[in-house]
Amino acid sequence: MKRFRTILVVFVLGVAAAAAGYYWWQERTNQLPANIATGNGRIEAEEVHVAAKYAGRVSEVVVDEGDMVEAGQTLARMDTAELEASLAKAEADVAQALEAVAEARAQIAQRQSELAFAEQELGRAVFLVQKGHVSTEHLERRQTERDTAKATLEAANARLFSTQRAVESAAAEARRIQAQIDDSVLKAPREGRVQYRLALPGEVLPDGGKVVTLLDLSDVYITIFLPTAQVGRVFVGSDARIILDAVPEFVIPAKVSFVAANAQFTPREVETRSEREKLMFRIKVKIDPELLRAHIEKVKTGLPGEAYILLGSDAEWPERFAVRLPPVSTQ
Questions:
Q1: What are the start-end ranges of the H helices in the chain?
Q2: What pLDDT is attached to residue 218?
Q3: How many CB atoms lie within 10 A of CB 309?
Q4: Structural domain boundaries in the chain
Q5: Distance between CA 242 and CA 219 in Å, rounded?
Q6: What's the pLDDT band for 23 if we cut at 50, 70, 90?
Q7: Which of 254, 255, 270, 297 gets the highest tally of CB atoms within 10 A of its CB?
Q8: 199 with 250: CB under 8 angstroms?
Q9: In the prediction, which pLDDT does 29 show?
């Protein structure tokens, strides 16, 4: 019995020593060099809300959640029946205004002819008065006729100017309505993935009502927080790596794209050095857009992982941080 207890104690001690050795080895393996900072976060992407510019009824939504869309691709359409009717009226107003312009020009031609005739009559009257063949009263009558023709021509010119402005106004109204019709076709402002369909056909939306939310997969990043002691050595453009919990076998290259100027989640005034060392600064680590484009079908937001930042431009990555990426899809 005593021998059994001795064996049991030795076995327990051996297991404990093995566990301690494994823990020590694991800690040594996972220990980061002093020139690498790390923080955990989740993969994020910029959200783009595609909304109706004007109030109206949703006619159709032509994409589904999860669809990849190209920049400029149609996502949804708003009902434009009322706008189409308004456009038809505006175009009719343009046509009517153009007819008024043509009529005003014809009147100008007529008034110019009348003025020319009145000036000829006045010249003849002046000659006859000088010869004594007609009275001055006849001359005054011809002068009045010439002045009247001249005033009538000026009025015709003014009417032409007015009708031309009416054409411009009607055309501007037609362009405004056409712009509203064009804006009723909701298009993707950039390449991305449809995250949410926020409205269904038949729904009436107010001005700015959201219809579709896109994820801009050209701007994918992970946000981490680093303490004061490390953030002073981090700059925009610093080399970084991202390792996701779901696929730890892959090491994704990245760059620091943002370093907060102010600390996060800290008191407004910090007096002591020990408290200042606890300040945490937000860091944004962004994946290269060209790399994302090559693996666009594999990009998923919300995945947790670790971001590692190289402190110092002359430092090098350890072997375990060598870039390892999934194969590029040939489809």
A1: 2-30, 81-131, 136-183, 228-231, 273-276, 289-294
A2: 80
A3: 25
A4: 33-46+218-321, 50-80+185-210, 81-182
A5: 15
A6: very low
A7: 254
A8: no
A9: 39
* CATH class, range 81-182: mainly alpha
End-to-end CA separation in angstroms for the chain: 70
Return the sign of the alpha-carbon dihedral for residues 218, 224, 229, 230: negative
List pLDDT tens digits, range 177-212: 999 999 999 999 988 889 899 999 999 999 999 999
3-state helix, strand, coil in the chain (%, to 5): 45, 30, 25
Full-prediction pTM beyond 0.90? Answer: no
Q: What are the backbone dihedrals phi and psi of residue 176, each rounded to the nearest 5 degrees, phi first?
A: -60, -45
Q: Identify the bridge partners of residue 56 per DSSP, sorted by sequence position.
A: 205
With CA atoms as reference, report the closest residue to 238 among 254, 222, 220, 250.
254
Q: Which CATH architecture does the domain made up of 50-80+185-210 adopt? A: Beta Barrel (2.40)
Closest CA to 239 of 249, 247, 248, 251: 251
Higher local confidence (pLDDT), 312 or 272? 312
**Could you tell me the two tokens for 256?**
């620091």
Domain 33-46+218-321, CATH class in plain words: mainly beta
Taking each helix axis from N to C terminus, what angle separates 136-183 and 81-131, rounded to the nearest 10 degrees? 170
Strand, helix or coil for residue 135? coil
Task: Please give the share of the chain, as a percent, with pLDDT higher than 70.
Answer: 83
User: What are 193's strand-pairing partners?
Assistant: 68, 215
The residues pairing with 221 across neighbouring beta strands, listed in sequence order, are 44, 286
Tokens 């590692």 found at? 308
pLDDT at position 17 is 47
Residues 6+ apart with CB under 8 A from 190: 48, 71, 214, 216, 218
